[in-house]
Design brief:
- The chain has helices spanning 4-14, 21-32, 34-46, 48-62, 76-99, 103-110, 113-120, 124-144, 154-164.
- With 165 residues, the chain is an all-alpha fold.
- Helix 4 (48-62) packs across helix 8 (124-144), helix 5 (76-99) crosses helix 9 (154-164) and helix 8 (124-144) runs antiparallel to helix 9.
- The longest helix has 24 residues, at 76-99.
- The structure holds phycocyanobilin.
- Phycocyanobilin (CYC) binds next to helix 5, helix 6, helix 7 and helix 8.
Length: 165
């Protein structure tokens, strides 16, 4: 698993280069947002259960066919699996936020997920919608906690949504 610093060093080491201006700029951008990343992640952690619950309610409110007979989240077991998946997305997003890198998402969440979803008939469009809803609620929650300039918050959610689209 890589973070913003180890990813960058790895790239420079492969080609045997000293850190140049671009490297310094990107490290600076990461360290400048460091405290805010940790704070945003702490706010999400403290509100994770409520964020997931609200995201699930909003998703099923927007797409009620998911929980009707024949829908992929129909039956309590599948409903619960869907909320659990949302919880995975949120938790791993906080890891990626702190790391400043999406590598953990590739390695721990996305690897083979599309195939698993295909074989179980989990629909990609509604899953992506679920991730977007999670992002919006996480943004609101972080903003309400007084953390401004949290533009970095979008990245892990957008990355997972794009990879599952
Ligand atoms: C199932 N979701 C699964 C399964 C996996 C994951 C592996 C199959 C095994 C199981 O049921 O537990 C996802 N597992 C993960 C992820 C990780 C992991 C991401 C990384 C940490 O270890 N259905 C919908 C909604 C959506 C949904 C759109 C919720 C957003 O209609 C999710 N995922 C969903 C459902 C199942 C599932 C309903 C159960 C499908 C079935 O068994 O028929």
């Amino acid at each position: 698993m890589r973070d913003a610093v180890t990813s960058l060093i790895r790239n420079y080491d492969i080609t045997g280069r000293y850190l140049d201006r671009n490297a310094i700029d990107s490290l600076k951008a990461y360290f400048d947002t460091g405290i805010a990343r940790v704070q945003a992640s702490a706010v999400i952690n403290a509100n994770a259960a409520a964020i997931v619950k609200q995201a699930g309610l909003q998703l099923f409110d927007e797409l009620p066919e998911l929980i009707r007979p024949g829908g992929n989240a129909y039956t309590t077991r599948r409903y619960a699996a869907c909320l659990r998946d949302l919880d995975y997305y949120l938790r791993y997003a906080t890891y990626a936020l702190v790391a400043g890198d999406t590598d953990v998402l590739d390695e721990r969440v996305l690897e083979g997920l599309r195939e698993t979803y295909n074989s179980l008939g989990v629909p990609p469009g509604p899953t992506v919608r679920g991730i977007q809803i999670l992002k919006a609620i996480a943004q609101e929650t972080v903003a309400e906690a007084g953390i401004t300039n949290a533009a970095f918050l979008d990245q892990p959610f957008d990355y997972m949504a794009r990879e599952l689209s």
